[in-house]
Every structure is written in structure tokens, then in C-alpha cells.
Design brief:
The complex is a heterodimer.
Chain A (H helix, E strand, L loop, with lengths): L1 H20 L1 H36 L3 E6 L5 H13 L3 E7 L1 H12 L2 H5 L9 E6 L4 H12 L4 E6 L2 H42 L1 H9 L4 H44 L11 H32 L1
Antiparallel strand pairs in A: 1-3, 1-4, 2-3
Chain B lengths: L1 E9 L5 E10 L4 E5 L6 H8 L7 E6 L2 E2 L8 H6 L1 E4 L11 H12 L3 H14 L15 H13 L5 E5 L7 H16 L3 E5 L3 H4 L5 E6 L2 E2 L2
Parallel strand pairs in B: 3-8, 3-9, 6-7, 7-8
Antiparallel strand pairs in B: 1-2, 1-4, 4-5, 9-10
Helix pairs in contact in B: 3-4, 3-5, 4-5
Classes of the chains: A alpha+beta, B alpha/beta.
Chain lengths: ~300, ~220
């Protein structure tokens, strides 16, 4: 245990010394890694925000039921009682046409236009909350109600949310592909950094091996180096995203205000941040491992 | 402790460096390996440290067949040997102290205990006052002593030196040999390759003489 500890603290110290001994190249590789990571991680952050936005607005999907213009109060009460008994409907609200017109007048700033109308162009309407938010069930409910008498039109409010959802799925796929490609780039960057280091330390490796160093002993400082570089790159990526959020949030707040929304970008959750750091550390370690292993086997065959 | 039986070594596309060499060295012996340049002295020493592997025959060190050792066992064998290389193999990017510290770091010593041992080893070879300097500023003899300190810091049971007096003048060479003798006196098995055993060896020392890869004495 003490030997293990001493080996690892030695390797860690050596890796830190090598990093700080060559600050400029180290910094450049770390920044490259940080930028490469910030692209997919930033994309992921944006997707998460968009998703929370869509969830925020649509909540549970609603059905809007517009009655025919010639429907009478008896039709309204009949439909009301049918909805009350329907197993898939959890609640509903009746919006009489006069009320709807009043809302339109107040909300849209079209008061003058509305006042100039000779008669109310709006139909009576019901807004229904379904018990089940499964799109298939909603579609069935939609189709069923559509066939009832005196129903002019049924609007499923979740359809735009569904469109956004499939767009988000597409976006997630794009982010995933970007992440995979840039992960390779990160491994490649680390691979080369470590390869150069090994080439400048061939003497040290040779002497160490001659006086009894195992491959593990030689490999360890390089692995630590790769892991630290990866982790620092992950922190840089986090900072880049934080800066991006900070810079765009003011502009976004103005934009959101125009749509009467309270929307600000949120940074990655602490769990996602941990994943980002662990993943970047692992990638750095991986690149270093590949590099050292291939270099050591080359040295051994010489 | 060290036993060669019918050991031959042929380098690829080259001559036979050693042919059918057999001998046994007991624990605590002091042995000179002599012979002209190219007689196979270095090859013989390299076989003991598993730096080269025999083409045929067996090399037994501390009961282990060195030629058949798996990759992972070689480092452990080498940690029990003190090797002084012909070309020194000093690391010039670190201080004298750190050069001697390296074998202890490889074995995973506690840093405090390690630095005590390093100072003791440097003291034994008379370099304690130069522990902080870079090896490039040392003279040839001092570099040789640095190598010896690095070889003995781990307190090995076998000390192997390849031409440790190579480019040193006579006085200095005797000083170095005396240093090896003092290690021998505390029970270390010492094996020294030199082309000049006549000058350096005492009458009581055992000599293995090589001629074109074959043992003559």
C-alpha cells in the first residue's frame, strides 16, 4: 500500500512538473481540448434549455374544441356532459364566444378592429386536459371528438411541441455525432503530446528500464499527464460555455421579453458537469495510454 | 548465486559473442572478467541483467533462469542487481541527488527514507558535497562514482560493473576498485569487467578470462 501510494504520488508530481515545466505548449493543448469539448457540451446545454422551454410552455398537451357557429346552449351542455363522462378527459373548461372576444380585445391590441366587427366571429370553445399525455392516445381522442355532432374543429395543441421534440431528437443526434468525432480529436491531441514527450525522454526511459523500472512505472506519469490535461481541458470547456451563457443571456432576455417569456440559459447541471469532467479525463488518459503503449512496444523491439 | 552453463550468444547477422561459457560465482565472491576488447565481457554482464538473452545455454541468477524470465519478472531481477554501465547512462537533466534517487523511486521507497539512503550512498563514494549539482559539471571519475552510488543505493546483493575504470588514470582507477572492494567486504558479490585486470586485480581475486568469446581460465 505504501509502495503503491509512493509510486502514484511520484507519478502525479512528475506529471504536474512536466505540465508546468512546459507551460506554453501545455496551455495550447489544453485550450485545443477545451474548445473541442465545448462544442458538443455547449450544444448539449442549448438542447437542454430548449427542451425545458418546450416543457415549460406546453406542460401537458391540451385539446381545443371549437363548436360550430350555429350551436345552441343545449348543444354546449350536451357536449359538456359527454366530456365529463369521458374516461380520457381529466378536466375541461368552457370558453363562451363573448368571453373569447373580450380576451382577444384585451390581449392582442386589436381592440379597434374587434369593435368594428358587426358580429362575433369566434365560436364557443372547450379546452380539454387529457388524462394521458401519450401522443397516440391523444390522437385517438382527437379523432373521436372530431366525429361528435356540432363540432367544427378539434385542435391538438401538442402538435407543435411534437415537432419541436423531433427537432430536438435530431439536434441530440447531431450533438452526439459531434461529440464522438471531437472525442477522437481529443484522443489524437493527447496521443501526439505524449508521443513527443516520450521521444524527448528516451534516455530516461532506457535508464529506468535498465535499473528495474516496470512498464507500469514508466507509463504512469504519462497517464497522469494525459488525464490532467484532459480534465483541465474539460474545465476550460466549462468556462467557455459559462462565458457564452453570460454573454448571450442579456440579449436573450430582451428577445424573450418580446415573446412575454421569462427565459434565461441555464448552465449544465452539476451532474452533467461531473460527467463532462470525468469523460474528458478519461479521454486524456485513453490517448496517453494508447500513445505510451505503442511507443513502449516500439522501444522494446529496438 | 550466478551460474552459466554452456552459454552461447550470437547477435543477429554477426559473430558469436560468447561460445559455450560455463562458470559459477558463489555469493560474496569478487570476480574480474578480463579479455581484449570484443572478447565478450560486456555481453556476459548483459546476460546476467537480462539486457540480452542467451542464444543457447542457461544463465541462473539467484536461482532464476534469467534467459527464460517473462517480461514482468525482469524489472524485479534488475532491482536486486547493482549495475554500473560502461557508458554511465547518467541523466543529465537532473541533479546528482535525483540520479541516485531514481532506483529508490522505482522501488517505491518512502521519500524521507529514500533521501537518507541517497545521502548515505553519495557519502560512500565521496560525492555528498555535490548532491545538488548537475552531472554535466562532474569530472569523468566523479561521473563514474555517481554511477556506483546509483548502483549501490538499493543495497543489491550483486554488483556488476562494466569497465568502471575505462578512461581513468591509474590512481583514480585504483581508488574506484578499492571502492568496489569495500562493498565486497560487507558481503556483496562483485563482478567487474576490465581489460586491465593485471594492473587492478589483487593476487587473491578470481579472474574469468575471455578470448574471442570463450573462457580460457
Amino acid at each position: 500500500m505504501r509502495v503503491w501510494l509512493s509510486h502514484h504520488s511520484y507519478a502525479l508530481l512528475l506529471a504536474l512538473k512536466r505540465l508546468s515545466g512546459n507551460p506554453f505548449p501545455s496551455l495550447l493543448s489544453i485550450i485545443v481540448i477545451g474548445i473541442a469539448l465545448s462544442l458538443p457540451a455547449g450544444g448539449y446545454m442549448l438542447l437542454g434549455n430548449l427542451q425545458s422551454l418546450s416543457g415549460h410552455i406546453s406542460g401537458s398537451p391540451q385539446l381545443s374544441l371549437f363548436l360550430a357557429m350555429d350551436s345552441k346552449p343545449t348543444d354546449v351542455s350536451q357536449i359538456g356532459s359527454r366530456l365529463k363522462q369521458h374516461p380520457l378527459v381529466s378536466s375541461f373548461k368552457f370558453i363562451p364566444k363573448d368571453h373569447a372576444l373580450e380576451q382577444l380585445k384585451q390581449g392582442s391590441g386589436l381592440a379597434d378592429v374587434v369593435d368594428s366587427l358587426s358580429q362575433n366571429p369566434l365560436p364557443d370553445a372547450f379546452v380539454i386536459n387529457a388524462k394521458n399525455t401519450d401522443p397516440i392516445v391523444l390522437d385517438r381522442l382527437h379523432g373521436e371528438i372530431q366525429k361528435w355532432p356540432k363540432i367544427d374543429h378539434v385542435q391538438l395543441d401538442s402538435s407543435w411541441a411534437k415537432r419541436l421534440d423531433s427537432l430536438l431528437t435530431l439536434g441530440r443526434l447531431a450533438v452526439l455525432m459531434l461529440a464522438i468525432l471531437l472525442s477522437f480529436a481529443l484522443v489524437a491531441v493527447t496521443f501526439n503530446t505524449i508521443r513527443l514527450q516520450i521521444l524527448t525522454r528516451l534516455d530516461e526511459i532506457e535508464v529506468s528500464k535498465l535499473i528495474g523500472a516496470s512498464n507500469g512505472f514508466i507509463r504512469r506519469p504519462f497517464l497522469y499527464f494525459g488525464a490532467i490535461q484532459g480534465m483541465t481541458g474539460g474545465i476550460i470547456a466549462w468556462l467557455i460555455i459559462a462565458l457564452g451563457i453570460y454573454l448571450s443571456n442579456n440579449a436573450l432576455a430582451d428577445l424573450a421579453a418580446l415573446y412575454a417569456l421569462d427565459f434565461r440559459l441555464q448552465h449544465l447541471s452539476s451532474r452533467d458537469c461531473m460527467s463532462l469532467l470525468l469523460f474528458s479525463t478519461w479521454l486524456g488518459w485513453m490517448g496517453a495510454w494508447l500513445s505510451v503503449t505503442s511507443q513502449l512496444s516500439q522501444i522494446e523491439t529496438q | 548465486m550466478i551460474s552459466f552453463s554452456n552459454v552461447s550468444k550470437r547477435y543477429p547477422n554477426s559473430y558469436d559473442a560468447l561460445t559455450k561459457v560455463s562458470f559459477t560465482i558463489d555469493s560474496g565472491e569478487m570476480v574480474f572478467v578480463t579479455g581484449h576488447s570484443g572478447a565478450g565481457k560486456s555481453t556476459l554482464l548483459k546476460l546476467i541483467g537480462a539486457i540480452e538473452r542467451p542464444t543457447s545455454g542457461s544463465v541462473i541468477v539467484n536461482g532464476q533462469n534469467v534467459g527464460a524470465l517473462k517480461g514482468g519478472a525482469i524489472p524485479i531481477l534488475r532491482r536486486n542487481l547493482g549495475l554500473v554501465f560502461q557508458d554511465h547512462k547518467i541523466l543529465f537533466d537532473r541533479s546528482v541527488f535525483d540520479n541516485v534517487l531514481l532506483p529508490l523511486q522505482i522501488c517505491g521507497f518512502d521519500p524521507k527514507e529514500a533521501s537518507g539512503r541517497v545521502r548515505a550512498a553519495l557519502d560512500k563514494v565521496g560525492l555528498l558535497s555535490k548532491e545538488k549539482v548537475k552531472p554535466i559539471t562532474l569530472s569523468g571519475g566523479e561521473q563514474q562514482r555517481l554511477c556506483i552510488a546509483r548502483a549501490v543505493v538499493n543495497r543489491p546483493s550483486i554488483l556488476i560493473a562494466d569497465e568502471p575504470t575505462g578512461n581513468l588514470d591509474s590512481d583514480y582507477a585504483h581508488e574506484i576498485i578499492d571502492m568496489f572492494r569495500s562493498f565486497h567486504q560487507v558481503g556483496v558479490t562483485v563482478l567487474i569487467a576490465t581489460h586491465d585486470a593485471a594492473r587492478l586485480g589483487g593476487s587473491q581475486d578470481r579472474i574469468l578470462a575471455l578470448d574471442h568469446g570463450a573462457l580460457t581460465v
